[in-house]
Amino acid sequence: MTQQLTLDGLGSSSNGGSRLGRVIATDLQGEMQRSYLEYAMSVIVGRALPDVRDGLKPVHRRILYAMHELGLTPERPYRKCARVVGDVLGKYHPHGDQAVYDALVRMVQEFSSRYPLVAGHGNFGSVDDDPAAAMRYTECRLAQVSHTALLDQVGEDIVEFMPNFDGSQVEPTVLPARLPILLLNGSSGIAVGMATNIPPHNLGELVDGLLALIDNPELEAEQLLQWIPGPDFPTGGQIVDSQGIREAYLTGRGSILMRGVAQFEEIQPGKGRHRRPAIIITEFPYQVNKAAWIEKVAELVNQDRITGIADLRDESDRTGIRVVVELKREANPQAVLQQLYKLTPLQSNFGAILLALVNGEPQQLSLKGILQHFLDFREVTLGRIFRAELQRVQRKAEEVEAMLLALADLDRVIELLRQAPDGSTAKGQLQTHLGCTPEQADTILAMPLRRLTGLERERLQQEQAELRSRIEELQGLLDDRRKLLNYLKKELRQLKKTHADPRRTQILSASELEAEVAQIPTGEEGEDSTFLLQFTRKGYVRRIPLPSRRSRTNPAQRELGEDRLLSLESVTLGQEILVLTAPGRAFTVPIEGIPLSTGQSRGVPLLTLLPAPEPIIATFTLDPNSVDAALVLLSRQGRIKRVALADFVGLTQRGSTALKLKEDDELGWAAIHDPRQSSDTVILATSGGRLLRLPLDEEQIPLMGRMAMGNPALRLGRKEQIVGMTLLPPEGILILASQSGHLKRLALSEIPTMDRGRVGVQAFKFASKTDALVGLVGLAPDPNRPGQPQVDLFTESERIHSFLPEEIPLQNRAGGGSPLLKSERATGLHVFWPQWLPE
After folding, report:
1. Are residues 239 and 361 in the same domain?
2. pTM of the shown model
3. Catalytic residue chosen out of the listed positions 39, 78, 115, 137
4. What's the pLDDT tens digit per position in 633-644?
5. Which residues are the active-site ones (predicted)?
6. Tell me, what's the pLDDT at 562?
7. How do 195-198 and 238-239 pair as beta strands?
């Protein structure tokens, strides 16, 4: 596709000819690509990404340089921010005033910048995301660190300058930074097709890392972690896992897990009231809005996703942050804190992307790369500084030498000047008589009379000696790189002495994390590490101690108030619970992460122990000895696959994909198959009463990876849907239930084994055309499970009807079951096995 472009914007004349007689035909696709590329590079270079040398974006550089030109040094009074914004807009940055002011405000905020580059006077916002006052009310000046480390040495002979947008002024392309500001305060920005997110660091640690790199340029990137252990956020907090730091520093990209600082206290809510446990939040992760966090917690408490909180209030003041989370008397403080970590931004990730401009091009850099680029830039800048100073000192030395030459032959010089008809003649005669340069002759002609005194001669001789010493020193710095680097090290040490402060963010080591877990007040000290784990129909999980022989409580009690027990099993500390959710994701929850419950507590919602509120499909206790076990997964649309259970051991907190799904599909059923214990087959049931039995082998249900979508298991009718899946050995028994409440038992031997993709066999004869199958469960003889299982039938009214297996008639495939439910519609089936207790 082509488009005709007329030069100078003039269109064609009415008679169809061009006014200029020149029309350029260009390809529209090529023109769009070229124009968009120019726009993208303009955003990347001119707005969004910082320069690796001074760590600044153009808007920040222009603000600081405009303040420098206005003379707003740290010892001068504050000036209105509106004046600074006006100068920046008029001279260097022809964009919106609000954009410039927002950038200025961020450089003032102590909770945004680790070392603020601008000192402010007035309201510049708060950690609660309160907006800053208008620019006509606030005042600013340069902070000491920016004046010393960025602007003290700025000049056209030190850094490159370029014309501003209208050519009326010049502005620096980079500031002569004496510290790596890019790492010091960090940077964030979104460009076209790329983004940067660099965390702030501690000044003293950065200087130590630079000194180590100067001494040993071959230092490995990982060795720098000895001096720079991790980011140092202005809001403090904790960094939980150093692995994310290592990845970010070595590769330029990584996820750093941050956590707020909390402590436990006993408080008295009011006069005459009992003291209660409380969680006191004193520090939040970087860039977390305190007010929004409090609203989030209140919302989760109202939704019953966080339990155990009685009150929530903000007691922060000028001295610091203090958010009080008051707990109920029976609540476990450590368990509530873990819920806050999992469900709120009190624990969040900082996605580090170390992207910056290198020679005008965006590059993803490692920590060593950024430090090395800064050192290279500082070395070049020092060279330019010393060369400029050497030229000034040499000129001054020539002037002093000329004065001393004149004083050495003062009578003759006076005589020449007295007889000379004009200045030009006198200048020539001085050059001839004294052998000086034209510049030195001009200096002699401009020399004041007070220089003729004896005291001034001594001062000139002393000054000449000092200038010669300085020239020799500067020449040595320029000729010997080792001396230049020693000067740089001395400069860095002085900056550290002046501006460094203690680290604010604590980095928790592995041993400290283990100690934190060991401090969980679960009441398990000195007790057996075996517990009972209960799961209820409403999604609660409860960990209880094993009852003694004299205990009067029955751990297998089904009724839990308005809730109902679905499963009960014995577990040990160190094991993990695998949780599968409807979007096909898998999460693991350690047993010790489930609060220990006593008394009548029904436990905690299992959903609150997960990082994402997704519908839970199934839970399994991971057995480390079941190395050959596999998960059989089935989606609602009938895709089935088998995946090794070992793939889900040691998952991170973010979980993992268990089954890749289409957009309109979700995980429906899951079961564990251990080939060492049984030779199971898979039985699938449809709402039409059909059953399909598949062998668990590599041909029909092959072992796949976690990201695989699986294979189609069976063919469904137009109005059919899958209602159940179970794994059974050949001697197993099936129990089927219809919507009308008809139930029957069916021997598995009645169902022939078929290949994947078949329609199966009809196994239920419905009493009416409107009836449909709603559930399928399997029963297999298990010597390890003495006791009588119970079959639960769920109804639309949320009632549960329980039956013993022998109460359900045994029929063949042609049977229609027995009407065990009247006047209610059934919705599903479940089997409960009472847990046996060890002797």
Report:
1. yes
2. 0.70
3. 137
4. 999 999 999 998
5. 137
6. 61
7. unpaired
